[in-house]
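REQUEST FORM: STRUCTURE PREDICTION
Request ID: SP-0412
Submitted by: Lab K.M.
Chain count: 1
Length (residues): 342
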Amino acid sequence: MPILTSSPTPHAGTSPRISRRGMLLAGAAGAGASLFSPWSVAQGGFPSRPVTIVLPFPAGGGADIDVRLLAPELGRLLGQPIVIENASGAGGTIGIQKGLRAQPDGHTLFYGSPSETVLMPMINPAVPYKTEDLQAVALSAKTPLAFFTRPDHPAGDLEQLIAYARRNPGKVTFGTSGVGSFQHMATEIVKARTGTFMLHIPYRGGAGVVNDVLGGQLDFGVVVVPVVAGFVAQGRMKVLGVSSAGRSAVLPDVPSFGESASLKGLDLQTWGMFFAPHGVAATQLEQLNAALRDAARSPAVVQQRRKMGMEAAQPMGPAQAQAFLLAERDLYKGVVNRIKFD
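STATUS: Completed
RESULT:
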């Protein structure tokens, strides 16, 4: 099943532009595939046309790569081509708004992470939607954070870092990809849990954090696991712990939050979730959820995700995914309320 990519759409509300030849080819392929689709015949012909997935990120990023990895299997299961539309900008909120405005007929999904769907609506009053406005379809994948430092830092693991911070209140510095980022909020939860006072230094991306930690300007940094894997393999970096309850398949020798006496019980992973506009029929939500879950179980998808440092999320239906989303909102609400954002 082909994946169709629309032209870049920097502004919300614009329609994807697909060549007439591309649509004819996709339509022919979709018609052929639907004869064998496990979904289209059994579910009354839904979906009846290509399914669009709106991504609030630029092409080429980790989430974009992951959705494109999932799309061929999803298209095969649904018996229709998958159209990927990148609608980035305004911290991801443009793409979310575009998805929310789509027709609620089940033929448009949109994808989001904690930043655009949970944190931005709480941090920025100008964002015109709330987390509860989103209709979850399926939780897709999770990725833990890596708490890392330079090889010669005195802390050897998370417990030693926490003890070091307690002995040096206000002197330990850490970097993340920005004020209000998921990495920032997760570290604030760690600070609150451990009663430590550490100084946050915001950056515009993970690369600057890595450079300054390795250069000795910061005590430690917090980035997603895939960013650090290469440095660890080269012996240039020491990872003190990962933010999941269990160990990461990419960093199997690194202890997790679940192994830390001070952080046990915390599972702070960034995730990707598929959403639909409110009003989509419950039967369609269930069908889309089942197809997305089956696509995620494809051996090729599982293998590639692990190479990227991602793991499939625990299977759950739309109602469970919605409950998970709102629980994440509640988890970070207290942290956001304690921080003054300029």
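NOTES: The domain at 144-259 is CATH 3.40.190.10 (D-Maltodextrin-Binding Protein; domain 2).
Reviewed by: T.R.
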